[in-house]
Specification:
By secondary structure, the chain is mainly β. The strands form six sheets. An eight-stranded antiparallel beta sheet has the order 8-9-10-11-18-15-14-13. A seven-stranded antiparallel beta sheet has the order 19-20-21-24-25-30-27, with no helix packed on it. A five-stranded antiparallel beta sheet has the order 22-23-26-29-28, with no helix packed on it. Strand 19 and strand 20 form a beta hairpin. The radius of gyration is 23 Å and the shape is globular. The C terminus is likely disordered.
C-alpha cells in the first residue's frame, strides 16, 4: 500500500474501476497506514514514515477512530518520507519506480492476470489500462486533484501500443494470452517486460515492450510491432494534463520538455504531438449519472506506425521533474545507450554508472551476456564486484535457467569457464534472484 500511494492518492493502476468515481482518493490507503503504524512489524519504520508523509498533505480530515492513530504517528518522530526505489510485483504484473520528487509505475497483464474490471457499469472505457500503461506524477494531483479523467482520451493512455479502433477503449477485460511478462531489479533500479497481445474484438496487434528504470530516467523500448488489420497503430509516449492551457513546450532536434517532463528520442525524433482541450463527463466513464462537463488540456505525444506495421519499433526516454535547460544538458551528456531492441533481446546501458538492463525474449546474447531462456536482468558493477538481479518472466514455479556473463567471477552459484562465468538462476515463480560476484584475479604466468 505504501508503495502505491503518492500525495493524497493511490496510483491509478491499482484502483481499476474506481477511476470512474469522482470522489476517489487515497482514504483507504491512509487508513491502512496509520492503523498498521501502531503495531510492531519488520517494516514498521517504513510504514510510519509513509504515514507521516501522507498526513502532511492530507486535507479531508479523518474520522474519530483514525484521528487518534494519526496523532500517534505525528508524535512518533518518524521521518516523513515516501518509499524510494524500485519494485516489481511479480504476482500482479505491476512495477513501481519512485524518487522523492516523483512517482512512476507500469501496469501490465499476462496469462496469469486479468487486464482490469468493470463492475456495476463502472470503468466502461478502461480496456487499455493494463497494456503497458505508464503513470507519472510529480505533485500527486496532476490527474486526480483536477478531475481530468472524464476528459482523457482513453484510447491513448501513456505508454501503450494500440490499434486505433472505435472499440479501442471499451469494457473488454480478461486474462491475457501471453506468459512473458515480468521484471527484475536491485531495489533501486530495474527492468520490466511485456509480450503484448491486447484483448478486444478484432484485435490483431502484437508487440514486445520493455522498460529500463534508472536513477533519473525511464527508457521505453518496443519492438516487433505487428498488426494485420486496416487500423492505424500508435505507441503513446504520454498524454499529460498540462498545468495551464498555455504551458510552454521547449524542444530541440531530438528532445522536448513541457510542464516539468522531459522526452528524449534517441533513434527517431519524428514524434507526433498535439495540444488539445478535451471535455467529458463522469457518466461517460460509467457508474455515475453526473453529466457535468469537465475540461482539461492535454499534451499528447505518440509514434504513428501506420496501417499493418511489420516489425516496427519505438524508442524513447522520459526524464521526470526536469527544467528545459536541465533537459537540454541531460541530452547533451548522452547518458543512455540502447544496445539492442529486437525480437530476441532488448538492452540498455546507463553510461553514467555502467548499469546494464537486459530483457531476453528468447535464448540470446548481447555484449557477451547470454541466457538460455526468457529472462529479465539488471546488472551493476562496483569495482571488482558485479551485482546481478535476474528473474523468470514466465513465473514458472520450479526449475532454473542459466545466465552467462563475460569475465571470470567467483561467488555463490558461479561457474567460470574460459572467459565467461555461468550462473544458475532459480525460477521461483518470478521472484528476483540476486547475487554478488567478485572478479577472479588474473592468472599469473609461471616463472621458471
Amino acid at each position: 500500500i505504501a508503495w502505491s500511494l503518492y500525495g493524497n492518492y493511490f496510483d491509478v493502476s491499482v484502483i481499476s474501476r474506481e477511476v470512474a468515481n469522482r470522489s476517489f482518493s487515497g482514504f483507504n490507503g491512509i487508513a491502512a497506514l496509520v492503523q498498521s503504524a501502531q503495531f510492531d512489524s519488520p517494516r514498521v519504520a517504513e510504514i510510519r514514515s509513509a504515514a507521516a508523509r501522507m498526513l502532511q498533505s492530507w486535507t479531508w480530515g479523518l474520522p474519530t477512530e483514525l484521528a487518534g492513530a494519526a496523532t500517534l504517528v505525528e508524535r512518533s518522530n518518524a521521518v516523513a518520507a515516501w518509499p524510494d526505489g524500485h519494485r516489481h510485483y511479480y504476482e500482479s504484473d505491476y512495477t513501481v519506480h519512485r524518487r522523492p520528487q516523483w512517482f512512476a509505475s507500469i501496469k501490465m497483464f499476462s496469462s496469469r492476470t486479468k487486464s482490469g474490471e468493470s463492475t456495476n457499469g463502472e470503468n466502461i472505457l478502461g480496456s487499455r489500462q493494463s497494456d503497458g500503461r505508464f503513470f507519472l506524477s510529480m505533485n500527486g494531483s496532476e490527474y486526480f486533484g483536477r478531475d481530468v479523467w472524464p476528459a482523457l482520451d482513453w484510447t491513448r493512455l501513456p505508454g501503450i501500443t494500440v490499434e486505433q479502433t472505435p472499440t479501442a477503449a471499451d469494457a473488454t477485460y480478461g486474462f491475457g494470452t501471453r506468459s512473458i511478462v515480468g521484471g527484475a531489479g536491485d531495489g533501486r533500479n530495474g527492468v520490466s517486460a511485456m509480450d503484448l497481445a491486447p484483448l478486444g474484438t478484432g484485435a490483431t496487434l502484437t508487440a514486445k515492450k520493455s522498460w529500463f528504470s534508472f536513477d533519473d530516467s525511464i527508457v521505453f523500448l518496443t519492438n516487433s510491432i505487428n498488426a494485420t488489420s486496416a487500423n492505424r497503430v500508435e505507441t503513446i509516449v504520454n498524454q499529460w494534463p498540462l498545468s495551464t492551457a498555455t504551458a510552454a513546450v521547449t524542444s530541440g532536434s531530438n528532445w522536448m520538455q513541457a510542464d516539468g517532463v522531459g522526452y528524449y528520442f534517441p533513434t527517431n525524433p519524428h514524434v507526433s504531438t498535439k495540444r488539445e482541450t478535451r471535455t467529458g463527463t463522469w457518466a461517460q466513464l460509467g457508474g455515475s449519472t453526473d453529466t457535468t462537463p469537465f475540461s482539461a488540456t492535454f499534451l499528447t505525444l505518440w509514434f504513428d506506425h501506420g496501417v499493418m506495421p511489420a516489425n516496427a519499433a519505438a524508442e524513447y526516454v522520459i526524464v521526470p521533474n526536469v527544467t528545459a535547460n536541465a533537459m537540454r544538458d541531460w541530452v547533451a551528456s548522452n547518458p543512455i545507450s540502447i544496445r539492442a531492441n529486437d525480437a530476441r533481446v532488448s538492452a540498455v546501458r546507463n553510461l553514467r554508472d555502467g548499469a546494464l538492463g537486459i530483457v531476453f525474449w528468447s535464448p540470446a546474447s548481447v555484449e557477451g551476456y547470454q541466457s538460455d531462456a526468457p529472462a529479465t536482468v539488471y546488472i551493476t558493477r562496483n569495482g571488482t564486484h558485479l551485482s546481478v538481479s535476474a528473474a523468470d518472466p514466465t513465473n514458472t514455479a520450479t526449475g532454473s535457467f542459466h545466465l552467462t556473463i563475460p569475465g571470470r567471477y567467483r561467488g555463490p552459484g558461479a561457474t567460470p569457464s574460459g572467459g565467461f562465468t555461468t550462473i544458475e538462476v532459480l525460477r521461483n515463480g518470478g521472484v528476483t534472484f540476486t547475487t554478488t560476484l567478485e572478479q577472479s584475479p588474473a592468472k599469473r604466468r609461471a616463472v621458471r
